[in-house]
């Protein structure tokens, strides 16, 4: 088998088409999502357990996730991973009673060492009488919060998340867990005619565009679906967060080099002018 593979490699020199590949003999995709090594689906297909993914094909579209199955992975690149956003929301009736909601949203990456929430994400609150708090530890020591306020729908600027109906704040680097809590200042009775529901979520900054008054008044199930399906959370990934290039042994294959990542861990990259998957033998090709 090994000889066969080597012969294959020499008979058909690896080209650009072989970049971002899975380990030979392993699934290359889950639905539309490409799974490049060091990630892999199934025994012996991943570098180590941090990159052990599962593909649940009994769901349509198939769901790629980390081991425990709870987090949907939408895209994997050589630096980042995109996962589905978890949205908290509250909906009120005219008198100010909470009628429907899920005020907490949390995501834990703790069991997948080597993954952290990217600084490209923004913690976002949509609403006219609302706030959300984001905690960065299991002990719920709240570190940050954001207010969405407005008194009239026509005053809400389209495309601008400035605190009027929409508020965004950045998150600290290196987070691997957050828990957000959404609440109302009054009870929505004053703004209910144009804003019945509020939302709180972490999201990739560039993928989210605030649609002003229409986002405030839209049917909440449509809004939740829009966020979940098109606006992801970005994760950074590294090999071995406690490691560095001085102790790396043979992870970076031919024609590639190791580089340390700020905040811990390392990654491999092809030498300039070479392409391929730097984690897989025979490495990158010119
Ligand atoms: C592989 O490399 C080629 C050339 O750089 C690029 O056009 C293509 O998008 C890459 N494929 C993937 C899956 O990244
Ligand atoms: C994961 O793989 C890297 C590279 O081979 C290695 O340095 C590291 O110790 C491994 N981590 C675990 C938890 O096995
Ligand atoms: C796949 O997803 C379905 C529906 O959520 C679930 O019932 C099932 O247990 C999952 N299968 C695996 C192998 O995780
Ligand atoms: C990889 O994940 C699957 C599904 O969670 C699990 O059954 C398997 O034991 C894991 N493999 C390793 C080496 O941990
Ligand atoms: C994944 O992201 C890359 C780069 O951002 C993009 O080119 C590609 O189309 C995405 N793939 C999917 C399935 O979304
Ligand atoms: C909501 O607030 C209004 C005005 O402050 C008050 O009259 C009303 O009783 C409140 N409704 C609830 C359900 O607390
Ligand atoms: C998130 O915070 C809420 C409120 O403090 C708490 O009830 C809930 O258990 C927390 N969730 C997690 C996973 O820590
Ligand atoms: C919101 O949209 C869903 C599905 O599109 C629909 O079933 C529901 O009745 C709508 N709710 C309201 C209040 O319009
Ligand atoms: C580096 O790339 C060259 C040109 O593609 C190739 O001949 C050589 O085998 C590669 N070196 C290693 C160590 O893989
Ligand atoms: C993980 C991985 O193999 N990433 C590679 C994907 O392709 C680009 C372009 O060729 C390379 O730069 C990455 O290293």
TrEMBL record:
Spans through the membrane = none
Per its UniProt record, what Gene3D superfamilies does this chain match? Laminin
Q: Which UniProt keywords apply?
A: EGF-like domain, Signal
Q: How does it sit in the membrane?
A: Single-pass membrane protein
InterPro entries associated with the record:
EGF (IPR000742), WAK_GUB (IPR025287)
Give coiled-coil spans as residue ranges: none
| Statement: the UniProt record of this protein carries the keyword Signal | yes
A Pfam family recorded for this sequence = GUB_WAK_bind
Q: Which GO terms describe its molecular function?
A: polysaccharide binding
UniProt-annotated location(s) = Membrane
Annotated EGF-like domain residues: 241-285
What Gene Ontology cellular-component terms does the record carry? membrane
Q: Which PANTHER family match?
A: OSJNBA0016N04.9 PROTEIN
Q: What is this protein called?
A: EGF-like domain-containing protein
Q: What organism does the record attribute this protein to?
A: Tagetes erecta
Lineage of the source organism?
Answer: Eukaryota, Viridiplantae, Streptophyta, Embryophyta, Tracheophyta
């Amino acid at each position: 088998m090994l000889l066969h593979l080597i012969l294959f490699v020499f008979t058909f020199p690896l080209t650009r088409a072989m970049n971002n590949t899975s380990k030979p003999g392993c699934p290359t995709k889950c639905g539309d999502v490409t799974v490049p090594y060091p990630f892999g689906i199934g025994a012996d297909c991943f570098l180590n357990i941090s990159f052990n993914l599962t593909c649940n094909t009994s769901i349509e579209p198939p769901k790629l996730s980390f081991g425990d199955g709870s987090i949907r992975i939408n895209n994997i690149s050589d630096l980042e991973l995109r996962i589905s956003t978890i949205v908290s929301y509250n909906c009120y009736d005219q008198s100010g009673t909470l009628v429907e909601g899920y005020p907490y949203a949390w995501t834990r990456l703790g069991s997948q060492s080597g993954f952290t929430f990217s600084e490209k994400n923004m913690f976002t609150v949509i609403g006219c009488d609302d706030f959300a708090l984001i905690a960065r530890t299991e002990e719920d020591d709240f570190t940050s919060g954001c207010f969405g306020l407005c008194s009239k729908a026509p005053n809400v600027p389209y495309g601008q998340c400035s605190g009027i109906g929409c508020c965004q704040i950045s998150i600290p680097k290196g987070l691997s867990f957050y828990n957000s809590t959404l609440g109302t200042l009054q009870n929505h009775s004053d703004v209910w005619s144009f804003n019945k529901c509020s939302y709180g979520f972490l999201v990739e900054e560039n993928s989210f565009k605030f649609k002003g008054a229409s986002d405030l008044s839209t049917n909440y199930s449509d809004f939740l679906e829009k966020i979940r399906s098109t606006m992801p959370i970005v994760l950074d990934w590294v090999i071995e967060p406690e490691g560095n290039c001085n102790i790396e042994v043979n992870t970076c294959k031919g024609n590639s080099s190791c580089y340390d990542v700020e905040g811990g861990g390392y990654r491999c990259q092809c030498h300039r002018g070479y392409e391929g998957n730097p984690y897989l033998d025979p490495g990158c090709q010119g």
